[in-house]
Batch of 2 targets.
Target 1
Amino acid sequence: MQDIVADDRRWMQRALLKAREGSAAHGCSPIGAVIVRNGVLVAEAYNEVDLRFDATAHAEIVAIRRAGTKLGCTALRGTTLYSTLQPCGMCSMAAIWAKIGRIVYGAGRSDVHDMYFEDRHLQTIDFIRDAYRDDLALSGGVLAAECAALYVAPGANIPPSLQFNR
């Protein structure tokens, strides 16, 4: 179990780097995603919605597309998707259709501003998983404070529960 936790932290750090990279280089919304299989990086991405003028170019979707291209398939069995933010309904559904085995996310809905989620947002990922794939493993809150800090305006007062040691 400790290996899984250490690996999750390692790969979430990589997703954080991608989120920061996209934000710094292109002004993209700071969301990063990484796809890993058997401890090996398969694909990584940051949010490219505004960069590509494509509402579907979320970090998770871009990473899934890259993983499929790299592996030459649409079924990404045995992979883990790491995302700095709890995946939206579209990204959750894409992970299910891509047959990703596990989703790990950092900041959840309650950790960030409401603007990052739909007004009538259900716990979409749980709802979709239960309806379509009971074999999909979910883990949330990995480096949650670090991930949530990406979605706070500079100079904003960060609640103590979301602060982290630097």
Note: Confidence is low (pLDDT under 50) at residues 158-166.
Target 2
Amino acid sequence: MATLNHIIENVPNAFEHTVAVAAAADLAVLEAVSMAIDRKMAKFRLYDDESAMTAMMQKHFPRLLNHPRVQLSHVSNVETAAEEAVKSVFGNDSDILMKGQIATAVLLKAVLNPDYGLRTGLVMSHVAAFEVAGFDRLIFVTDAGMNINPNLSQKVQIIQNAVQIAHSVGVEMPVVTPLAGVEVINPNMQATLDAAALTAMNQRGQIKGCIVDGPFALDNAISINAAKHKGIAGDNAGKADILLVPTIESGNILYKSLVFFSNAKVGSIVAGAKAPIVLSSRADSAESKLYSLALAICSSSTLGTSIRRN
């Protein structure tokens, strides 16, 4: 069974990667940093008010104080924290960008800066890896956090981003399912038209490294029994690894439903930038932030892990 802990266990533990954290004076962020340091997962550059970071470390994480793998950089506000952290990645001093106690919009403003930002010309998209009770595989959901209403061309790149992440954690040939409200093509439902086009593009070799099959409704995408009960034929029904949502609203609802209704574990990053971006919610637990760090390190690394689909 593939789990998020398997990803952590297979991260190279030689401090090979450096993470720049914008607005790091936050207990959950520092706890995640502490856990990552204990596992020798990465080095850290922490940007925030130095006295605030030091006070938190003294009280809660004293082993981080004067740690050779932790560098504190004083900045006076969150905007500067975002700017300096992004510049660290832009200048190749850091390999990964991580969001701390800062609004997503503030961090993304720096990420998109034309002079020192991290855009590559490709679509940036949010990829979340969920560990859900009762499933023998990780379920990836994309895009729940970046693209509001992606068109067909953008969906192609969103798939490619998610496939790259899945490959990096050992899912060799992920099944990508474009979700819709029904399993048939309906000219009045754009999601079904896009799903059919993406499936055809994959079959013609225009989308590589995965199997794209859709449209599917959620139940038939993830449950073989549900697909059989509805008489849906095909080798991929019920076997989705990657769920491609049609809009950001549907993705956001699915993401939060898995977290709050199912108590699923999750790690998430933004792909398609110059470097992986850990864009966890400020409300996410330290454990979730650690999973996201592991996902980012695997994505950044050429080593990947040994997780395989059953």
Note: Confidence is low (pLDDT under 50) at residues 302-310.
